[in-house]
């Protein structure tokens, strides 16, 4: 009896230890970021952890097991969305200029400052509460990396984008501009010479902007908004303190890139079964001739497309034998053809999972790309901003999609692309092949993420995963000191050779001349 009780006590104790306190900071008011962060944190709560999520949104159906707390950043949604729309309008500046603007002084603390200054966040920061793990969503949120110091927690970075110049150097991940297109470029894998030149320059400029503006500005934000004495921390120390990167990517999407051991691919973490509403189920079931699904995601509204593009799309759709399901953010669509069904919000995953979907017309956001590869549907990508051009050109290069730029969108062009994807089976076959790769995993991406978060707790920050690079100065990492040394050795050797050659020549000359003159004399 006694023994049993002790046993029970031990079990209770260990399970109490296993429940960690986890803080997730997902301050960006973009639904796609929230969906990802929420999927991860829900998974952690369902595994029995005590989870706090900081975000602009409220969870309406918190998980039953574990524990869940929302810290809602009231009022910053509109601010962020205005900002994102502004960048969509800057398209004419070109991909580079508009995106370089994102990390310049104007915007370097656009996400961090309203977060750190928010009343609810300030309350948490001054509460003295501690956590085991802080997970921060990466994107103009450098200052939040100092939260790990404030809450005495291990730092995990969640990257909703592919690995990029903002992250690689934090963990010493090798990334060469010779074969890795930078995040905000529109180069597909296998770059041409001129693309490699641009990619190299671009990476250099972005890196410089990051170090010249983004880091100092975020460091000032830490000094300004963190309670004392935690405002004394040097942001540089906080930045390189990352224990783990949870990377929203998977090898089925594009050719692989090198990963140091603390980068864990969890692309597909948000995939879970949904249920189609009855009317959609019926619409899709009855469309034996096939359905085209069109959605430009949550940042670009179809209803705000230029009239010319909208008319071209509508004219194309009205002449199709197929049906069309279109995410359209209004109650009515002027000139809606009979074969087109609209919905303000559509359960995208479930729609893509339906066997009658033949083609997805998308803006090429990473979540849409992951979903389309998961369900094996080929795409026509009309990219707008951020990583969308890169994703779109990658899909084209890898053979499961075609890019259509908004400026090239016309009725003739769109209908010929639709015809190409529907009649040439190679696109669908490639999408389906990649789908089998995406699904062929030892363990689900969510379980994998939970495992690695717990791994970091078990191994107290898992510092054994860090590569040596982090102990080197930048010139040591790029071997500049070694090259300089070798150069000097070669130079010295040349000089010595030259001197000794002169000596030899001198001696020989003297000797030979002497002999010659002697021979002549004889
Ligand atoms: C938590 O709840 C979910 C659904 O309610 C269940 O599937 C899961 O097994 C539970 N996990 C634990 C650790 O109890
Ligand atoms: C910070 O928040 C306070 C009120 O909560 C506000 O008065 C102040 O202007 C804010 N500062 C900045 C820089 O946004
Ligand atoms: C680095 O992380 C550890 C936990 O792994 C934390 O205790 C420490 O305060 C962090 N240091 C900085 C400078 O952020």
TrEMBL record:
Listed GO MF terms: glucuronosyltransferase activity
Membrane topology: Single-pass membrane protein
Superkingdom of this protein's organism: Eukaryota
Signal sequence annotation: 1-19
Subcellular location: Membrane
The keyword Metal-binding belongs to this UniProt entry's keyword annotation: no
Classification via Pfam families: UDPGT
Enzyme nomenclature, EC number: 2.4.1.17
CDD domains (UniProt xref): GT1_Gtf-like (cd03784)
Reaction(s) this enzyme catalyzes, per UniProt: glucuronate acceptor + UDP-alpha-D-glucuronate = acceptor beta-D-glucuronoside + UDP + H(+)
Gene3D superfamilies noted in UniProt: Glycogen Phosphorylase B
Stretches that traverse the bilayer: 474-497
UniProt keywords, alphabetically: Glycosyltransferase, Membrane, Signal, Transferase, Transmembrane, Transmembrane helix
Cellular component annotations (GO), alphabetically ordered: membrane
Statement: the UniProt record of this protein carries the keyword Glycosyltransferase: yes
Family named by the database record: Belongs to the UDP-glycosyltransferase family.
PANTHER family for this protein: EG:EG0003.4 PROTEIN-RELATED
Name under which the protein is recorded: UDP-glucuronosyltransferase
Organism name: Aromia moschata
């Amino acid at each position: 009896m006694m023994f049993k009780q002790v046993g029970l006590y031990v079990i209770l104790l260990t399970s109490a230890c296993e429940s960690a306190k986890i803080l997730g900071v997902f301050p960006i008011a973009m639904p796609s970021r929230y969906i990802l962060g929420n999927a991860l944190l829900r998974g952690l709560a369902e595994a029995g952890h005590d989870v706090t999520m900081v975000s602009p949104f409220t969870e309406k159906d918190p998980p039953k097991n574990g524990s869940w707390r929302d810290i809602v950043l009231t009022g910053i949604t509109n601010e962020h969305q205005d900002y994102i729309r502004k960048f969509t309008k800057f398209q004419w500046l070109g991909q580079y200029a508009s995106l370089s603007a994102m990390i310049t002084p104007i915007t370097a603390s656009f996400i961090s400052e309203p977060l750190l200054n928010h009343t609810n966040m300030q309350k948490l920061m001054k509460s003295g509460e501690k956590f085991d793990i802080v997970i921060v969503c990466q994107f103009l949120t450098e200052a939040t990396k100092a939260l790990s110091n404030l809450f005495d927690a291990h730092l995990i970075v969640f990257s909703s984008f592919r690995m990029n110049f903002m992250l690689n150097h934090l963990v010493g991940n090798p990334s060469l501009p010779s074969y890795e297109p930078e995040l905000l470029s529109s180069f597909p894998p296998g770059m041409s010479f001129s693309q490699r030149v641009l990619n190299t320059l671009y990476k250099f400029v972005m890196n410089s902007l990051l170090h010249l503006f983004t880091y100092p500005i975020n460091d000032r934000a830490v000094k300004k908004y963190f309670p004392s004495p935690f405002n004394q921390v040097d942001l540089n120390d906080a930045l390189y303190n990352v224990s783990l990167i949870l990377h929203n990517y998977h090898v089925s999407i594009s050719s692989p890139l090198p990963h140091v051991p603390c980068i864990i691919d969890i692309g597909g973490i948000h995939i879970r079964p949904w249920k189609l509403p009855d009317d959609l189920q019926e619409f899709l079931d009855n469309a034996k001739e096939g359905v085209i699904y069109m959605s430009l995601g949550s940042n670009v509204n179809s209803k705000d497309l230029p009239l010319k593009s909208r008319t071209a799309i509508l004219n194309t759709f009205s002449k199709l034998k197929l049906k069309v399901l279109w995410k359209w953010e209004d109650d009515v669509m002027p000139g809606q053809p009979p074969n087109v069904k609209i919905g303000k919000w559509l359960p995208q995953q479930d729609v893509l999972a339906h066997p009658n979907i033949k083609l997805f017309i998308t803006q090429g956001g990473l979540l849409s790309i992951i979903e389309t590869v998961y369900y094996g549907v080929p795409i026509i990508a009309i990219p707008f901003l951020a990583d969308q051009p890169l994703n779109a050109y990658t899909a084209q290069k890898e053979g499961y999609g075609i890019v259509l730029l908004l400026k090239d969108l016309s009725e003739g062009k769109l209908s010929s692309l639709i015809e190409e994807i529907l009649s040439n089976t190679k696109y669908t076959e490639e999408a389906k092949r990649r789908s089998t790769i995406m699904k062929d995993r030892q363990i689900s991406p969510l379980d994998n993420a939970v495992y690695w978060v717990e791994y970091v707790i078990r191994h107290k920050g898992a510092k054994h995963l860090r590569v040596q690079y982090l102990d080197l100065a930048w010139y040591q990492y790029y071997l500049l000191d070694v090259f300089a040394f070798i150069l000097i050795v070669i130079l010295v050797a040349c000089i010595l050779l030259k001197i000794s050659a002169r000596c030899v020549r001198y001696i020989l000359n003297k000797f030979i001349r002497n002999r010659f003159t002697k021979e002549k004399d004889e």
